[in-house]
Amino acid sequence: MSGNDSATPDAARDATSDATLDATDREGRNPLLSVRDLRVRFRTEEGVVRAVDGVSFDVYPGETVCLVGESGSGKTVTGEAITRLVKSPPGEIEGEVVFDGQNLSDLSEKQLRKIRGGRIGHIFQNPQNALNPVYTVGWQVAEAVRLHTDASRKEARERAIDLLDQVGIPEAAARYGDYPHEFSGGQKQRVVVAQALAANPDLLIADEPTTALDVTIQAQILRLLADLREEFGMAVLLVTHDLSVVAEVADRVVVVYAGKVMESGDVYNIFEDPAHPYTRALLDCLPGRGGETRGIPGRLPDPTNPPDGCRFHPRCPHALPECREGAQPPLYEVADDHEVSCVYYDGSHDPTAITGEASSRPSFPDGGGGGGVSDRANVRPDDSREDEDDE
Amino acid sequence: MYWYVARRLAWAFVATFIILTITFLLLEVTPDAQAAQLQFQAAQGGGSAEAAREAYETRRGLDAPLWERYSNYMINVFTLEWGWSDTRSQPVVEAILDAYPYSLMYGIPAVLISTVVGIAIGLYSATHQYTLADYAGTFVAFFGISIPNFWFGIILLLVFAVELGWVPVLFDPNVPVFSVANAKQLVLPVFVLTTAAIASEMRYARAEALEYVNAEFVKTAKAKGADGRRILTRHILRPALVPLSTILVGDLLGLILTTSYLVEVVFGIPGLGRLSLDAILNQDTALVLGTTFIPVLIAVIGNLLQDLAYTILDPRIDYGDR
Amino acid sequence: MATESGDPERFEDVDWDELGGLAVPRRTLAFVASLVAYALLLGYDYLLVAEDQPTIPVAGWNVTAVDWLFLLTLLAIVFYGVVPLVVNRRLTVHYWHQFRKNRAAVVSLVYLLVIFVVGTVGTAFIEPPQLDTLAAYQPPVYSSVPADVPVSCAGEVVDGRCQGTWAHPFGTTGQGKDILKMVVFGMEVSMQVGLIATFITIVLATAVGTTAAYLGGYVDEVLMRYVDIQLTFPTFFLYLLLVYLFGGSLFLLILIFGLTGWGAIARLVRSEALQRSEEEFVRAAKGAGASTPYVIWRHLVPNVSNTVITAATLLIPSLILAEAALSFLGLGDPTVPSWGRVIADGRGDLSSAWWISTIPGFFLFFTILAFNFLGDALRDALDPRQEGGE
């Protein structure tokens, strides 16, 4: 699934897409959403910002895929570019987005509107601003219902109350006529979820749905999403920077950095055997991974002028001379449903330089800070502290 | 909410009261030009200046104690007993009633046109930010707020009345209200007033709409599948109307009240502005007071309406708080 | 320098205490010294010099009340506008780079500087326009009118048309006053009105806004209720009433606009200061026992300065316009050569002498336009939040 212009893309691409097919063929399904070589550029005064620069991944029916990366890595834009929510101009979207056999890039704005909110629901980061302050929450949920069904006003109202009830708003009927400012942050996010579910979507794109919320509320919302996913059988594309959330809900993980996919694969593979130095650095930032929480040294590259070679090389403790030139390395398969964009995996290098001899990583962060610190020395280059850009 | 409205009404009343009191005090502390003139005349005619002043004061009720004069003044204001205009030889209220239709003739079209066009251009500019049309709109706005109305009116008269002869140079108050001739002579005044109002309205509308064009909830609406028009009217215009209502009633009113003086002078329209100005130039105290009460009253009412509009349009207002 | 990071500094980031080490006490001292000198001179003018005698006999300059206010305004501009910009050069360069992007604003700034210098300095060197009926209705240079329009043509008469001359580049009025001179003296009036009234507005709006925000409670309530009333009462009509009662004068007009026009900006300042007074550094200063005036002056005022400067710059054009409009209506100061009055004078001669009303109008228009452009650019440079969107 490499969407980059590497020197030997074909071989790598074949290998990787075969791998993907293998993974699905076991269940004999086609991907619900297939993103290929997605690029989003913004023309700004400072130059052209390549927010997303050739991202490819698949989402299968019913599964939860997490798009992980730091703020500014392009993950949010990726989520919004799927249904072309990115404002254009200044944004320009290229690449192929196939949803349930339909190429969304070919659809007219009118056809797209049917997909938005109809078959693909969206949840955004900040519930404080996601609801229009001058309308009642009921009206807003009912609006979502009426936009995609020909329900009458009354039917839409009933459906909206049902939805509010389903997302756990107590006394939904009584609260139908309340305004957003009369709801707490967590309740607002529930309302937003209700809106997104109005037309029984097949895919829910949730962009940092819990970041702006209290920790306890976060857990509730995540549980709600998991329950609803089970109930409605929808797929979820979760955009997040929070690996503990990923560990909790993801089936598969796509790690993005500076608009490129660094690593993708099954959640167990990513957490147990993280292959890319960036992924390893991200995991090391997790609390419970042995000591203090730290950021990754260095900054995200200038989006108007990204470095040659691997985007991560300026911050990578293992960077080789060849990492500094050419394009982003292709995605090499390291295991079943696990691929990584790093030259160490091209067959001519020794990946243990990154992973260390013992390939077993500490278990999931919620599993406590078990041992396995043997390899960390490799990942943590120095102690210069750099606050993570996130929130 | 009703409690809030009631309190707001009471406040408008108090504000009016305070303003009227200030006016009364101002009149009290300043020498009366008319009395001085009568005294001067009496002295010249060999009479007693003092007697003339007393006679004048008795006639005007000025010899009463301060408190009585104050209460009389207040009662007169609220019962529309606004006195007698010496220069026009008619009651002040009557003079005002004669004049105001002329002000409305150009005022109403100007308000309607500028509101609709101003908001429309502002919204368009905001949703098409950084396009050529947006820049053009911004330029027009700068032009409109910067050009002195009275001078603009003069230039337009010079070009369209004097040089081209398309419209009459002098306003004829005797043509029927709904006639081509009247429409013709009102085109320029309406245009001048509209330019200024559109400029300030579109600037506000653009700024307010921009607040919402990039708002998260507009993205939510788009993600719900709402179409462009629905997003514009329901999700951008509606919340933007809350602050815009302030501008519409407050600023627009102020602008038009002030500009009406200039427009009426430039185009020779015998409306309220001209009436007021002539009263000032002719030292007709009763008429000056009467004609300045009107805009002040309108301003108070406008402020009231604006706050009420806010409460109706914005559900977030906490009524207990104010 | 206040911060050591490479980030561009903003006005409110600057710790005014640390500016150039000793520069601030020195500046304050200098300002106080000039205020003392100012007060002494003012006292001398009002107590010792007779009403109709020139204050400075050598220059023959009788300093009027408006002149005194204008001097005070200029002092404040120098000490709190020019000096900080000169001392803190890095910040100045940063703002200049921001500002330079807006070409219209740069042109406006140059134009306004010319108007300001010519209007304040130039008026000291040229004679005020004189009444000269013989020179009435001279057309501007490079234009001509039928020879029967002027009383006697100062230039050549070609084909029965009087040609304009360089003696009166912009022509003359019906009273034979030179329009170029009227325009120059009009510059002074416009600058005085715009700058003095704005200065008064800034002082009052900042004082009331920050005090209301910082003290809160009843003080806040009383001050803001007062602002409500003041905003209800239209300044224009207050002036009409006062002109009626006391007669029009430039001094009165400036005072009224200055004393009654600060309500809206005070509201802005208050809301800005409310946010600031919750911040750490203010609470820290308060906790450390700093006095109320000290906290307001040291911590709140610098932090609302961007809001105030931007709002004030956008206030100037409306003041200039208001003065011109009132003069046009004949309600201004009859002793002052305002642009509005020249425009009004030429109105009766529109068909024969077009230049009397139009030429001063262009200067008025461009001055207002320039201030608006400048204010807009300042807002972009100083206060990006005010521009909606991202």
Secondary-structure topology with pairs:
The complex is a heterotrimer of chains A (391), B (322) and C (390).
Chain A: H1 9-25, E1 33-44, E2 47-59, E3 64-68, H2 75-81, E4 91-99, E5 102-103, H3 109-115, E6 120-123, H4 127-130, H5 137-148, H6 153-166, H7 172-175, H8 185-196, E7 203-207, H9 215-232, E8 235-240, H10 243-249, E9 252-257, E10 260-266, H11 267-272, H12 277-284, E11 332-335, E12 338-340, H13 352-355, H14 376-379
Parallel strand pairs in A: 3-8, 3-9, 6-7, 7-8
Antiparallel strand pairs in A: 1-2, 1-4, 4-5, 9-10, 10-12, 11-12
Helix pairs in contact in A: 5-6, 5-8, 6-8, 8-9
Chain B: H1 2-29, H2 33-44, H3 49-60, H4 66-78, E1 84-85, E2 90-91, H5 92-127, H6 132-146, H7 149-163, H8 180-213, H9 216-224, H10 228-267, H11 272-281, H12 285-313
Antiparallel strand pairs in B: 1-2
Chain C: H1 23-48, H2 65-87, H3 89-100, H4 103-125, E1 144-146, E2 157-158, E3 161-163, H5 179-215, H6 217-232, H7 235-246, H8 250-260, H9 263-277, H10 280-287, H11 292-328, H12 339-346, H13 355-382
Antiparallel strand pairs in C: 1-3, 2-3
Walk me through what this model shows.
The complex is a heterotrimer of chains A (391), B (322) and C (390). Chain A is an alpha/beta fold and 391 residues long. Helix content of chain A is 32%, strand content 19%. In chain A, strand 7 (203-207), helix 9 and strand 8 form a beta-alpha-beta unit. In chain A, helix 5 crosses helix 6, helix 6 crosses helix 8 (185-196) and helix 8 runs parallel beside helix 9 (215-232). The mean pLDDT of chain B is 81. Chain B is 79% helix and 1% strand. In chain B, strands 1-2 form a two-stranded antiparallel sheet. With 322 residues, chain B is an all-alpha fold. Chain C folds into two domains: 100-127 and 181-387, MetI-like (MetI-like fold, Orthogonal Bundle), CATH 1.10.3720; 130-177, no CATH class. In chain C, helix 10 (280-287) crosses helix 11. Chains in contact: A-B, B-C. The interface between B and C is large, with 53 and 43 residues.
